[in-house]
Design brief:
Oligomer: heterodimer
Distance between the termini of chain B: 41 Å
Number of helices of chain B: 0
Largest interface: A-B, 27 and 24 residues
Shape of chain A: globular
Largest sheet of chain A: 7 strands, mixed
Order of helices and strands of chain B: EEEEEEEEEEEE
Number of strands of chain A: 11
Chain lengths: 115, 116
């Protein structure tokens, strides 16, 4: 199994530009999570999906952030317009838990730099 | 609300020393899961262990051991005979035990440096 695949691995963009981060979860997993990691705030949940349906997006910082999961094998996190304070590592994770507490498997992350 | 506290921000030890990473959690749930993840310098998050709230048995895996004490809401992680390759940031995390999948709540992490 290839694991959770995120793209791109690194992204450098100018303030005001649109940024799209992509995630392919592990095949068969029914939950997908987007986390953001910064030095100041650590690892924080942005949004998660169960069976492609957004369950909790209360962690999405502002309306500039949006996430979609059009099917079980693909999700996007979009920032429009981007700002320097969005610079962080964004992780996608998936799990096939169904309430059993299985660990979440994380992708390699996307390091976003907004200049 | 759920919360995980890792009071040790950074720890530095000399190779072969034992080291314990502390984790204290808060939750109103009676059943929950606890986890430890490792983040090496390469940046990925690697799963180490999961513990169910009603299983308080300690666990040992090679040089790693975990001490879960529900009475003190703690889930501490000990590395015996530390090695340079253990240098990483270690995260403790908590999730609800639910009929559906729920996200992990992470502590801020402890950066461990093992010096040769």
């Amino acid at each position: 199994d290839a694991g959770v695949i995120q793209s791109p691995r690194h992204e450098v963009t100018e303030m005001g530009q649109e940024v799209t981060l992509r995630c392919k979860p592990i095949s068969g997993h029914n939950s997908l999570f987007w986390y953001r990691q910064t030095m100041m705030r650590g690892l924080e949940l942005l949004i998660y999906f169960n069976n492609n349906v957004p369950i909790d997006d209360s962690g999405m910082p502002e309306d500039r952030f949006s996430a979609k999961m059009p099917n079980a094998s693909f999700s996007t996190l979009k920032i429009q317009p981007s700002e320097p304070r969005d610079s962080a590592v964004y992780f996608c994770a998936s799990t096939d838990d169904r309430g059993r507490g299985t660990e979440a498997f994380f992708g390699q992350g996307t390091r976003l730099t907004v200049v | 609300a759920q919360k995980v506290t890792q009071a040790q921000t950074e720890i530095s030890v000399v190779e072969k020393e034992d080291v314990t990473l502390d984790c204290v959690y808060e939750t109103r749930d009676t059943t929950y899961y606890l986890f430890w993840y490792k983040q090496p310098p390469s940046g990925e998050l690697v799963f180490l262990i999961r513990r169910n709230s009603f299983d308080e048995q300690n666990e040992i895996s090679g040089r790693y051991s975990w001490n879960f004490q529900k009475s003190t809401s703690s889930f501490n992680f000990t590395i015996t005979a530390s090695q340079v390759v253990d240098s990483a940031v270690y995260f403790c995390a908590l999730s609800r035990r639910n009929s559906g999948n729920t996200p992990l709540v992470f502590g801020k992490g402890t950066r461990l440096s093992v010096i040769a």
